Amino acid sequence: MVVHRLGMDTSGLVVFAKTMDAVRGMNALFRTRKITRQYQALVAGHVEKDQGLINLPLMRCYEHPPYMRVSTDDHQRALLDLDASVVGSKLLEAPKTSLTHYSVVARQGLDGNDDLPVTQLTLTSISGRTHQLNVHCAAVGHPIVGDTVYGFNGAAAAAGGLPDVSTGAPLATQEMIAVAAAGNMCVHAKMVRFRHPVTKKEVEFTSSPPF
Fold it and tell me: Domain spanning 11-206: which CATH class is it, in words?
């Protein structure tokens, strides 16, 4: 059986367990975060720094559940008037610390068009929160290309739910890239590494992104 999930529009590696012992062992690895997963994403604009750490806490989006957003003091105050018996307890959970490490693979133009600057990033989700990579990239002004939820004019919680994102790619550039991408999201699970729960050997698998 499958032991973890990918986003609906995310391509790449998925781990399946063949025995119940392996299922229990893999569940323990994921629960204790003793597994490393890396993703490759194409994001709007040219990311300035070659590598860095995005440290922004996440919360459920009370305006557009079940999506996520960056937690701010204003967003937390908005929860005070909500009734858990009506909206559900998950929506009122405390914000969760969320860390994403990124490194630049290449800066280029979308489909070779220099008027549509994009960056290939390797992303490591240190904390493994729901939709973390999408929200974090959007919140720093470099939404994942083709992201119709958190990207430019997304269906919900665009820009990661922040009121003003002054960094990253200009909104006009994000819009042109969003139109050109036509909703084909560019994020790929490219590497998974863990200690095999049965053989106890370190194993690593890789997969090249299709973009």
Answer: alpha beta
From the CB of residue 21, how many other CB atoms can be counted at a distance below 10 Å? 11
In this prediction, residue 80 has a pLDDT band, given cuts at 50, 70 and 90, of confident
**Domain locations in the chain?**
11-206
Confidence of residue 7 (pLDDT cuts 50, 70, 90): confident
Between residues 121 and 63, which one has the greater pLDDT?
Answer: 121
For residue 84, is pLDDT > 70? Answer: no
- Output the pLDDT for position 161: 64
